[in-house]
Amino acid sequence: MNFLGIDDEDFIRGDVPMTKQEIRILTLAKAHVGTEAVVIDIGAGTGSISIEAARLAPDGHVYSIERTAAGIALIQANAEKFGVTNLTPVHSEAPAGLEQIPVCDAVIIGGSGRQLHEILDVVSVKLRTGGRIVLNCITIQTLASCLAYMRQHVAQFSYEAVQVQVNRLEAVGPYDMAKAINPIYIVTCIKKNA
Amino acid sequence: MNFLGIDDEDFIRGDVPMTKQEIRILTLAKAHVGTEAVVIDIGAGTGSISIEAARLAPDGHVYSIERTAAGIALIQANAEKFGVTNLTPVHSEAPAGLEQIPVCDAVIIGGSGRQLHEILDVVSVKLRTGGRIVLNCITIQTLASCLAYMRQHVAQFSYEAVQVQVNRLEAVGPYDMAKAINPIYIVTCIKKNA
Amino acid sequence: MNFLGIDDEDFIRGDVPMTKQEIRILTLAKAHVGTEAVVIDIGAGTGSISIEAARLAPDGHVYSIERTAAGIALIQANAEKFGVTNLTPVHSEAPAGLEQIPVCDAVIIGGSGRQLHEILDVVSVKLRTGGRIVLNCITIQTLASCLAYMRQHVAQFSYEAVQVQVNRLEAVGPYDMAKAINPIYIVTCIKKNA
Amino acid sequence: MNFLGIDDEDFIRGDVPMTKQEIRILTLAKAHVGTEAVVIDIGAGTGSISIEAARLAPDGHVYSIERTAAGIALIQANAEKFGVTNLTPVHSEAPAGLEQIPVCDAVIIGGSGRQLHEILDVVSVKLRTGGRIVLNCITIQTLASCLAYMRQHVAQFSYEAVQVQVNRLEAVGPYDMAKAINPIYIVTCIKKNA
Predict the structure, then answer these.
(1) Nearest to D144 among B141, B163, B165 (CB)
(2) Do residue C114 and residue B179 have CB atoms under 8 angstroms apart?
(3) pLDDT in tens, C16-64
(4) Is residue D44 within 8 Å of residue D66, measured between CB atoms?
(5) What is the 3-state secondary structure of A102-146?
(6) Yes or no: is domain B8-191 CATH 3.40.462.10?
(7) What is the CATH number of domain D20-130?
(8) Is C161 in Cβ contact with D4 (below 8 Å)?
(9) Contact A106, A32 (CB under 8 A)
(10) What is the tens place of the pLDDT at every residue in D2-22?
(11) Chain B: nearest CA to D135, how far in angstroms?
(12) Who's near D91: CB < 8 A, 6+ residues apart?
């Protein structure tokens, strides 16, 4: 019985920045990852999104693309910790490394370096009709670049975008005090029928 | 293949206020609804949370407590629309109506009227050890009341609380413009071992 | 004794959208409008920002550029209501209409149509060293365009940018319930010494 | 020519937490501090709010109540740095220390320890009709307590409350990335005619 929503503390992390729990949950829900889904996770970092995707898709497969060796080691460590076997780490900087991956149902982009349009060009082809690309954008430029791409490819994709801000209440003596978490834009792109 | 995260427009709504998609997703993820879960949804409104819970728990059951007849009708209409049969609407104002419900795994409280502490007293008994109560609070007073209860019952419950604010980007000509959605506090309470 | 922070309801409004009080206060504070300041307000709308600027600069002058006749009429009505005489409405679509305006201390841009870079080119010349341009951006594209300009003109300007989100508590019976206001980005650009 | 809105970095700070610039600006604007105002700043911390209030009220006076010696030293250091002489630090834990202060126009409460209702009882008497109390609440309990007080004293006070959340964009290479600041509730209470 696999719940979506592993606690942040349960992942092995090191110093690699990690998507926070609430953003991870929303990203995976918006990606519509089914039990047989083939998922590509680009800029996989610690693998927290990949692990949750792999648990949602026990009869599918997750490809975790990550350019740093530290990230790849953490993905492997987390896969082992959570007993996830339907996950392949790919040590590469996207779009390199995407060549051999087959048709997929969902693409999650947590980090794109400066290659966002190139990555979108490649994954657009691999994504099945009705499949979804979900991007987490932490910078204005990445968000603007993603919106510009979707507006240029309106025949291929529809999109929706939300900004999500979470404040966590921390108990300090008799008080609950809000601690802000950096806000994130989540863009969900759906591939239209040809 | 049931995804968590039905679009808001897909529910039959009428004039009853409805929890927005992102809040629904986070609420259900934080409730850890498993495939065999027994779930109580208090203040069920349109039934949007109940429907998603019922889909996550195909071998479990959802009890939807709602005090308005309009709400009960919408819950039934939505259950029919989504083909959900493991759901029982209960036309009652909680805590009334909770008596016959058995031991449960999760309680979701979207609306509590002014009876929050009475409701928490009753569901605390029905909730299994390790089970979760998740509250959506839209007022400061309900949030403060919930936090006060959890602080008084620290031997029984641990809790975490977040405020979630979502801004939806709307396309207006060549622009994407943020439309704010009212923020919500989500309090997750976990029943400790006795 | 002129306070910064006129209540929204005190302005004559019609159907023209108006900057909300908190954003108006922050925009004017970040513009460093002194008592003798010459201020240009571009996309002045109802004139709410112009009126507050004129009150902060009793020995200065405010030029309110607005392309709609409805806006110009509201600016005049509000100037009359608040007894402001150091304000000149200019019925024009910027950058047109800026030609005759002299050297200025502050430029506030609430609406730029699609001419943002052209407007910035013109006002950059008029702005005194140390003077400030403050932009209110409600779309991602305007924000990205403003940031791109400032990054291209790093020899001329330093900038800081914040997103501000305000939720207003509304009393509903015994409860206070948050009503969200759409978030805004405020970009403050300071002209460097040549 | 005194602008409202000193930069955070310009204050001498030590380790004492400081209200952030945007919150300081809104707090002072909502307090309607005029040139002759008598202002009480309770829980003055570094004195950042007191200093800005003193500059807005050159013909008035500011009393800065602070319980820590470290805070009192910072208030004095900042008063000296900004050449502010119409400010009296009071080393005390409110409501103690308020006895000798005369009728006042505005009260700003940044920190109230656990004595909020006692403090409000005392300052309610000192505040002139039409005067304003502005509270910055960083905890849910302080906010709820303040709202409860105002609801019990509806014959004496009207109030409005907003939550303000600021995200600061930080330039990181070619990107602007949002860094969240903890949100704050600002409650503005206006003393009614008797």
Answers:
(1) B141
(2) no
(3) 888 999 999 999 999 999 999 999 999 999 999 999 999 999 999 999 9
(4) yes
(5) CCEEEEEECCCCCCHHHHHHHHHHHEEEEEEEEEEECEHHHHHHH
(6) no
(7) 3.40.50.150
(8) no
(9) yes
(10) 678 899 999 999 888 889 999
(11) 16
(12) D66, D67, D69, D72, D97
Contact with chain C for residue D12, Cβ under 8 A:
no
SS3 for D128? strand
Report the alpha-carbon distance of residue C22 to residue B37 in Å, rounded. 46
Percent helix, percent strand, percent coil in chain A, to nearest 5: 30, 35, 35
Question: Cα separation of A99 and B16, whole Å?
Answer: 49
Token pair for A45: 């970092």
**Quick check: C5 and D29 CB within 8 A?**
yes
pLDDT digits (tens, 9 = 90+) for C61-102: 999 999 999 999 999 999 999 999 999 999 999 999 999 898
Are the C-beta atoms of residues C36 and C60 closer than 8 Å to each other? yes
pLDDT of residue D116: 95
Residues 43-82 in C contacting B (C-alpha not used; CB under 8 Å): none
Q: Is the pLDDT of residue A69 over 70?
A: yes
- Strand blocks (E) in D43-156: 61-66, 87-91, 104-109, 127-137
Contact (CB, 8 A) for D117 and D94: no
User: In this structure, how many other beta carbons lie within 10 angstroms of the beta carbon of residue B86?
Assistant: 16
Query: Where in chain D are the domains?
Result: 20-130
ipTM of the complex: 0.95
Contact D50, D75 (CB under 8 A): yes
Q: Each residue of C5-26: b (16+ CB within 10 Å) or e?
A: bbeeeebbbeebebbbbbbbbb
For residues A137 and A146, the answer to whether their CB atoms sit within 8 Å is yes
Contacts of D116 (CB under 8 A, 6+ apart): D109, D142, D145, D146, D149
Instruction: Please list every residue in chain D whose beta carbon sits closer than 8 Å to the beta carbon of residue B165.
Output: 165
Chain A residues within 8 A of C163 when measuring between CB atoms: 183
Kindly provide the residue ranges of all beta strands, DSSP E only, lying in chain D, ordered along the sequence. 38-42, 61-66, 87-91, 104-109, 127-137, 157-172, 175-180, 184-191
Q: Work out the minimum CA distance from D180 to partner chain C, whole angstroms.
A: 9
Q: For residues D163 and D185, is the Cβ–Cβ distance under 8 A?
A: yes
Answer for the pair A178, D138: CB distance below 8 angstroms, yes or no.
Answer: yes
Across residues C149-166, what is the average pLDDT? 97
Contact between B26 and A25 (Cβ < 8 Å): yes
Q: Which of residues 156-175 of B touch D (CB under 8 A)?
A: 163, 165
B71 vs B43: CA distance, rounded Å? 9
